[in-house]
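Dissemination and training. As part of the outreach component of the grant, students in the summer workshop were shown how a complex can be specified as a set of sequence lines and then modelled as a single object. The example used during the hands-on session is reproduced here so that future cohorts can follow it. Participants entered these lines:
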Amino acid sequence: MKFNCHFKTLLLSACFSSTLLTSCDGEQSKVNKPYRAEILKFVPSSTTSGESWVVAEQELATLENLDTLEGSFFSMTLGGLIKINSNIGSLIDASSNSSPVRANLRYTTKNGVIVPRDTSTLLALSSYFAFEQTLAVLQESTGIDPNELKKNINGPYRIYFEPSLTEKVENESAFLTPKLNAAFNPESNDFYLFRRSELESIPFSANIKVISHEFGHALFKNSFNANSAEICRTSEEEINARMADKFFSGRWSNEYAISGINEGFSDFNSYIVTSSTNVFTDSLPRFSSESRSLTGPAFVFSQLTNDIVCSGRFYCIGTLFARALYGVAQSYKNRSDLMAFSRRVYTALEKSRENLRASPAKDILPMPSKEAATCIRRSKLSLSYDGAITSAFLAAFLQSFSAGEEKKNLCENLRNLFGNYGFSQEARIVCES
Amino acid sequence: MSVNLDPLMNLISLGAAFAASNRNDGGGVTSRIHHYEVFAQSYLKLPANNLFLRSGVRLGYEHIPDEEAPQSIKIREQSFRGGFELGILYEGLMVPSISLQAGVLRRKLTLDTSSQITSKSTDFPMIEWLPMGILNLGLGLPIEGGKLILEPFYRFVWIAKDTRQTSQWGIDASWSLSFEN
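and obtained this result:
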C-alpha cells in the first residue's frame, strides 16, 4: 500500500512535468501589425474639466516589433544603467553604462488585441503610444516632417523605460533609481522615463503631457540649438577666451535664462499637443504645481528673486515665456489657426539663434559671466544679467514675426510678464516693425 | 547522534511554510513577494542506509506586501498554487533533502483604477493557469526526536510565461503524525 501511494505521487509528478515541458508562449506571437493594444490614454478637451484618461484599445501605428518595442521613430528598452555627468532641470548629460534589457512584455491576446498581463507592460505600451501621439502632431505644429527629424538625429529616438542612474559623488559612485520625473538627453537624443512611484497618480511614464514636454526639448535642440547638444565642457585655458566671446559653443545650454526659455517652450509644446495648461497636475495632484500652470497665479520677471512667488528657479522664466505664447494662442479658436501660430513660434525659435548674432539682439546680449564661461550653472536669478539675456533672446525671437495683430499681442504679453528687466526698452524696438 | 527516523515508514507529516522571493518588474527594480503554504508529506524508507523518499502535496498563496505602483492604475495579481512534490532526504544529525515540485499557479489579474480614469477595459479581471516547477534544496533540523522538523530551503523556480521570479527561500515547519498499517 505504501509503495502504491508513492508510485501514484511519482506518476502525477511525471504528468505535471510533461505539462511543463510542453507549455509554451504561443499566445504572445499571435498578433499582426498594425498592433492594437489596451493602453492608458489621454483624451484632450478644450476645457480642463473636459479632459479625461481612459483605458481603451488603441492602434500603435509606428510600432514594428512588439516584443522589442522597436518602431519607425522610437525604440523603447527596459531598464539600463545611465551614468549622469550633469543635469539642468530635465535635460541630462549622460551616457549609457550598460546595454539595456530589451522590453520583456507580458501580454495575452483577445480578438487580436494585446492585453497586458502586468503593470510594467501596460505602462510601457501606454508610454509608447503617448510618444506616437506626440509625433503625430509634429508636422502640423512645427512644419517638420518626422522623417526629416529622424534623419537629423540618425534616429530613431531611444526611450529608456525605468532606467537606473549612477552618479559620481565625491569620488564614490552612487546608484539611484529616480522616480517622479522624465528627462531628455540632447547629446544622445535619448528619453528617460523614470520609475513609477506610489506618490504619483497618472504615472509620469504614461503621461502624454510630460512626454510632449520632454519632446519639446528635442524640438528646442533641433531648432534653437541647430541640432547641436550644446554641451558645455571647459578647461582652465579657455575661460578667459570664453568670457570674451558672446557666442562660445555650449553657452546656451549653460545659461540660466536660456534653460528657462527651453523649459517654457517645452511647456508650450505640451499645450499644443494636449490642449492642457498644466503638465504635472494629473501626475502630482497633491503637490501644488500651479506656478508652472499656464493659467496659474500671476507673477512677473522682477519678482523672481523671491522664491515664494515662484520656487522653480529658471523654470519660472520658462513659465513666463510659455504664458506669453499661450495668451496669443487663446485668440485662435480653431485648430488650424492655432497650429499655424505654433509653426510660426517654431520657425521664430529656429531663427533666433542667428538673429542673436545681429543687432539689436547682439548689442543687448551681455558678455558671458565667469560662471557661464566656466560651465558652472547658477542656481539663482540675476535680474540684470539674466534680464539682459532674456531681452536679447526675445528681440531675436520676435524679429521673425511679421507685423500685425499677433505680433502686437505677443509683444504686449511679453512686456507685461517680463517688464523692463526681462524685456528691455532696447529689445522692444523689434515690436515696432 | 543520529535521529531514528525508522518510525517514519508509517509517517505522515503536516506543515506550513513561509517563503520569500524577489520579482523582477523590469528596470532593475524588484518587488518582494511573500509565499504562505500548507502541505502534507509521507515517507518511504529506501534500501540504501538512511535514505528516504518523501512525497507530498502543497497549497500556497502569494502576497505582495508593498507593491510599488501609481495610485491611479495598476494590474493587481492574486495567485494561488497547488502541486505535488517528490524528493529524497538523508537521515542524520541534520536532514538534507532535494526534491522536485510540480504544480499549477492560478493567478487572477485585476485592473485597479482610480476615479481619475473614466473608463475601464472589459478584459479584466482575467484568470491565468500557469504550470510551474520547483527544485527545492532543504536542510532540516529535527526537534523533539524528529517529531518537529524545521527545514530552511532554497528553491529554483520556473513558471510558464513568467520569468520575473526565479528563486525563493524560506522555511518549512512540519509535525509528524505516525499511524499503524
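The mean pLDDT of chain B is 90. Students were then asked to discuss how this feature might be tested experimentally.
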